[in-house]
Specification:
With about 160 residues, this protein is of the alpha+beta class. It has one domain: Roll (Thiol Ester Dehydrase, Chain A), CATH 3.10.129.10. The chain contains 4 helices and 7 strands. The termini are far apart.
């Protein structure tokens, strides 16, 4: 699933931006997520849903799946220096997501216009089977908005 030429990266450039819901979920064992960059510069996330992310027995809750998709789509912008916040998120759940299995989230920035950007992504199991997909619209943050949002926490 992971190629040796992919490089592990941190898309969120400062501590305050890394204090996401997913970060807290990782600490309590609900969700583990890490980011890698392919040679073509596209961003992928590797996610694992732990026992605390359970919905129906043995499978991840849809909210946990959507959390991973939302964060990975946003990370696809942040890694390119385009910090943004989600203003619209559409999702489609196609197959159950078993707990304690590794999934790949592939992301694509599909469009930019003025202060908006659109990103798509899929949650894939081994063999490329799509379990969920999402597309989102993000409001891009200029330096002043970023400064206000993270009030004194910028490096």
């Amino acid at each position: 699933m992971i190629s040796p030429d992919w490089i592990e990266v941190q898309p969120f450039p400062f501590a305050a931006a890394r204090r996401t819901f997913t970060g807290a979920a990782e600490r309590d064992g609900s969700i583990a997520i890490r980011y890698l960059r392919r040679p073509d510069k596209s961003l992928v996330a590797v996610a694992r849903f732990g026992p605390l992310s359970v919905g129906a027995p043995g499978q991840a809750h849809g909210g946990a799946v959507l959390t991973v998709l939302d964060e990975a789509l946003g990370a696809a912008l942040w890694i390119d220096g385009l910090p943004g916040i989600t203003v619209r998120l559409n999702s489609e759940f196609r197959r159950r997501v078993p707990l304690n299995s590794e999934f790949l989230v592939e992301t694509r920035v599909t469009r930019r216009r003025s202060r908006l950007a659109w990103v798509e992504g899929e949650l894939l199991s081994a063999g490329g089977v799509c379990h969920a997909r999402a597309d989102a619209e993000f409001l891009l943050l200029d330096k002043e908005r970023l400064r206000r949002l993270y009030a004194g926490e910028l490096p």
